[in-house]
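for the writeup, i need someone to sanity check this before i put it in the appendix. the sequnce is what the collaborator sent (i think, or maybe the updated version? ugh). structure was predicted straight from it, no edits. if anything looks off just tell me and ill rerun, i have time this weekend
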Amino acid sequence: MNDFEKRISQATEGRKIREYEPTNLALEMVKLLPRFYIITGFQMPMVEDMTLIARKLATDLLESYASLSVEEVELCFELGARGQYGDFAGLNLRTFHRWLRIYKTSEARYRLVTRRETARAALPATTPGHQRACEDRLLQKAFATYRERRNFERLLPVHLYGLLQERGLIADTPEEKRAAMARFANHGGQAARRPPAGFDFQVKRQAMEWLLARYFDRLIANGQQTLVL
C-alpha cells in the first residue's frame, strides 16, 4: 500500500457523514471550506454566503454521500483543489459535487473498499466451499437490494459483475462491452476537456454497472425472485 492509499485508508476510518446531525455537519463544512478558497486563490464568500453553501453542501452530503467520512470529503477537496480531478473555473456547489462523484468512484478508493468487503466476506475462509458460500450470500444480497432500490449504492458492481462473469451467468460479448463503454466515454463532453485522473477506470466501472443492471433487470422482468447460482 503506497502513501496515497494509506491516506485514503485512514480517511475512510473517520466518522461517517450519516452519523452527523445536519446542523453539526454544516458546522464542519464551515470550518473546512475556507481552506480551499485560500489554496486555490478564489475569493472567499461573505460569511452569510459561506454559511448557505455549507448548509446546502451538508444536506447534499447526507443525501448522496452518507457512506463517506468528513475526512474523505477533506481529502477529496484537497485533490480537487490540486487539479487531480480536472480543470475548474471556481469553487461552488457544482465543483464540489463533481469532485465528490469522481472521488467516490475512483480506482484507489474502489480497490480499498473491495479489499475490505472481500476480506469481510471471506472470514473465516477455511475451504473453497466456504468461499463459494460467502460469494453466494453476497450475490443474493446484491440482487435482493437491487430489486428493492434499483441502484448499486455500496454494492461494488464491478466485483459483482466479475463474480457472475466467472460463473458464466453473465456472458456479454466484447462488442457489447465496447458499446457499453461508449455510452459513458463522452459523458458530459469530457472527451473535449482534459480527462481527470482515473477517467478510464470510471468509464469501465460505469459500463460494468450498466451491464450488471441490464442483467438484473432482465431477471426481474422474468419474475425471478432470487439468483439461480
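The radius of gyration is 20 Å. Residues 188-198 have pLDDT under 50 and may be disordered.
thx in advance!!
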